[in-house]
């Protein structure tokens, strides 16, 4: 798909990888809507890139629908959806204060996994109704998992489970939507130098980075963004989970 002129939605677009991929899409000529719960951050990025901010909790059905409707009214039906919105609440299943609070586990699953599916289903409905492009394609959806789906560490039960759910969602979603001309793929980054990562307690950051094989490093947000653009432009990529680790080794699932 040629990105120039296409309407795009980026969830979690107010910061980190979401903001970076929104900037890359805008530079490539896309009309970008940022969906985020943080109004101030989303509106700041939208102003910077000439985009539009829609404030919504992606895990809320009505709020997600309203955000997609607002994006459609502003830019037309989205041809591109990048699901980046997510949270990480570290905590052991049984800690010093007893079992992990169920609401903490549920919150991570709701935002990371259910929020991804919610925005996928809503954007896919808009894409399905749009006229097919010259190659028969109607849209591209890229979700964000994590290597934690495969290699979750201590204190990451909720996060790893949510990201593993996104991995499991990818192929059936691609098969469901292929007949409508919509491709579905997922990127599973390693540790990324984002504000969310850098706000974790130092001991948690160290425990995570200590597990990385040498030589390696944190993934840069622009590496994630460039991979998103490559997937969008490459029609042959569909139903794949692509790992992006600190050594820049990218391999299909």
From TrEMBL:
Oxidoreductase found in the keyword field: yes
Protein name (Swiss-Prot/TrEMBL): 3-hydroxyacyl-CoA dehydrogenase
UniProt-listed InterPro entries: NAD(P)-bd_dom_sf (IPR036291), Sc_DH/Rdtase_CS (IPR020904), SDR_fam (IPR002347)
GO molecular-function term, one example from the UniProt record: oxidoreductase activity
Gene3D superfamilies the record matches: NAD(P)-binding Rossmann-like Domain
Organism placement in taxonomy: Bacteria, Pseudomonadati, Pseudomonadota, Alphaproteobacteria, Rhodospirillales
Classification via PROSITE patterns: ADH_SHORT
Record's keyword terms, sorted: Oxidoreductase
Domain of life of the native organism: Bacteria
Organism: Hypericibacter adhaerens
């Amino acid at each position: 798909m040629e990105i120039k002129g296409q309407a795009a939605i980026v969830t979690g677009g107010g910061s980190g990888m979401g903001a970076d991929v929104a900037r890359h899409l805008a530079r490539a000529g896309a009309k970008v809507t940022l969906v985020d719960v943080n109004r101030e951050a989303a509106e700041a990025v939208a102003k910077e890139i000439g985009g539009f901010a829609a404030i919504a909790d992606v895990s809320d059905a009505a709020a997600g629908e309203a955000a997609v409707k607002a994006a459609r009214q502003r830019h037309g039906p989205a041809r591109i959806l990048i699901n980046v919105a997510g949270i990480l609440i570290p905590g052991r299943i049984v800690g010093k204060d007893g079992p992990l609070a169920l609401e903490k586990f549920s919150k991570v699953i709701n935002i990371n996994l259910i929020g991804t599916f919610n925005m996928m289903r809503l954007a896919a409905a808009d894409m399905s109704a749009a006229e097919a492009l010259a190659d028969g394609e109607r849209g591209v959806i890229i979700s964000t998992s994590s290597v934690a789906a495969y290699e979750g560490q201590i204190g990451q039960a909720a996060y790893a489970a949510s990201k593993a759910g996104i991995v499991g969602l990818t192929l059936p979603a691609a098969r469901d939507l292929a007949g409508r001309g919509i491709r579905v793929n997922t990127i599973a980054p390693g540790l990324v130098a984002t504000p969310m990562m850098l706000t974790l307690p130092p001991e948690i950051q160290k425990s995570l980075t200590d597990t990385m094989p040498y030589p390696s490093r944190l993934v840069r947000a622009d590496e994630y963004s460039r991979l998103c653009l490559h997937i969008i432009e490459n029609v042959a990529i569909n139903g794949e989970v692509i790992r992006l680790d600190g050594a820049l080794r990218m391999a299909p699932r």
